[in-house]
From TrEMBL:
UniProt similarity note: Belongs to the zinc-containing alcohol dehydrogenase family.
Keywords, comma-separated and alphabetical: Metal-binding, Oxidoreductase, Zinc
PROSITE patterns: ADH_ZINC (PS00059)
Protein name per its UniProtKB record: L-idonate 5-dehydrogenase
Start and end residues of each Enoyl reductase (ER) domain: 8-338
Swiss-Prot/TrEMBL cofactor(s): Zn(2+)
Organism field: Streptomyces olivaceus
Length: 351
């Protein structure tokens, strides 16, 4: 079978790998669609994502969906041909957490995640024609949700987790700073969770167009001199840009909540943070998700439309071009999908 493998900085290849065989408690997936994430781009460009550095080649991809091709011994209730997506996280160890964070498995100290070099050997991702996974990581797609949409259940789960880190949004005005793929999904998640008005801000007019299509009621084009709104009770910072923090804190109402969903650098940065204290803002981090992938699938079933996010589609053999497109601001991309099989459900492929 073919797989998208990063061998080092700037070196991604479509390699031939042996067809995996499902063991006890496992299923074999015939994968159809995969979404390119920032971590995939980081491994390709830098040979590392955050503190996780490549020690050997790695199959990329953690946003995937496909169909069950076969089941291993002991697996029941998952039939061949069933369309599914995957929860890509697997805690390593006994799974016991301190009582104060009980159930928050995203905060477990050691987690194997699809397409991650955090451990050696690395955890291969799902940008391949086939992959075996533990049966309890499989999530069947609801009726009416195709595998192209299912590949976006994972990033939608990230957005829903972020929304869950804030007070109830019902009837509120919400600001989302940063309208990349995650920010635009936060827009959709906020509307789904009852926000009355969602304002999206970005430096890119193209990104703001996607945010509008995903449900933003208002947009602010910061590159054209437009400014953030004032006194917003709940703000989501999705750009991950330290330089944006001062303005975002100033936009947050006194006593309001700021949820940081955009990844901030792991190194020292300069940022204006004074309003965090003087405005008594609650600043909450948001990391991956727990079981919100189930909520994401229900949201997709109930009509949350993620298709405006998809701007480009490439076949697996053009993976390098797909990564380049996703990484290039001039390409005007939002979510770039890889077609992992020659016959995938959903729209036809092509850039």
């Amino acid at each position: 079978m073919r797989a998208v493998v990063v061998h080092g900085p700037g070196d991604v290849r479509v390699d031939e790998r042996p067809l995996p065989v499902p063991g006890p408690g496992e299923v074999l997936l015939a994968l159809e669609w995969g979404g390119i994430c920032g971590s995939d781009i980081a491994y390709w460009k830098n040979g590392a994502s955050g503190t996780a550095a490549l020690a050997h080649p790695l199959v990329l991809g953690h946003e995937v969906a496909g169909r069950i091709a076969a089941t291993g011994p002991g697996v029941t209730g998952l039939d061949e041909g069933l369309p599914v997506t995957v929860h890509p996280a697997r805690p390593v160890g006994d799974g016991v957490l301190p009582g104060r964070i009980a159930g928050r498995t995203n905060l477990y100290p050691h987690v194997r995640y699809f397409g991650s070099a955090a451990f050696t050997p690395h955890t291969d991702g799902g940008f391949s024609e086939y992959r075996t996974v533990d049966a309890d990581q499989v999530r069947p797609l609801p009726a009416g949700v195709d595998t192209q949409q299912g590949a976006l259940a994972e990033p939608l789960a990230v957005a829903l987790h972020a929304v869950g880190r804030a007070p109830s949004l019902r009837g509120r005005t919400v600001l989302v700073n940063g309208a990349g793929p995650i920010g635009s999904l936060v827009v959709a998640a906020a509307k789904h969770r009852g926000a009355d008005t969602v304002v999206a801000a970005d430096l890119s007019a193209d990104a703001l167009g996607v945010a509008r299509a995903m449900g933003a009621d208002e947009t602010r084009d910061l590159a054209r001199g437009e400014t953030l709104p004032e006194d917003v009770e709940v703000v989501f910072e999705a750009s991950g840009a330290p330089a944006a923090l001062g303005a975002v804190l100033r936009a947050t109402a006194r006593g309001g909540t700021l949820v940081q969903v955009g990844n901030l650098p792991g190194s020292a940065v300069s940022a204006v943070l004074g309003d965090l204290v003087t405005r008594e803002i609650t600043w909450a981090g948001s990391y991956r998700f727990v079981e919100e992938i189930d909520d994401a699938l229900l949201a997709l079933r109930d009509g949350v439309d993620v298709t405006p996010l998809i701007t480009h589609r490439f076949p697996l053999e053009r993976a390098a071009e797909a990564l380049s497109t996703a990484a290039d601001p001039a390409a005007r991309s939002s979510k770039v999908l890889l077609r992992l099989s020659s016959e995938s459900s959903g729209e036809s492929a092509g850039a």
